[in-house]
Amino acid sequence: MPYTYSQELLINTLAKEKVRDLQQELYGKGSVISDRQREALIRECREYQELLYQNRLNRQLEVR
């Protein structure tokens, strides 16, 4: 089932916020996290970045 344009924009907005939060947690000053937490955050951040990439590709393909 394809998403409507407004749903895709909502997904895009929420994913961007999540990536921003994860990057702040990873690279923010005063952030003390263990190596295991860091690896988990990096993995989660990459997953959201991949979601954003796929979302953008889907929108571009639908426009054509």
TrEMBL record:
Name this protein carries in UniProt: Uncharacterized protein
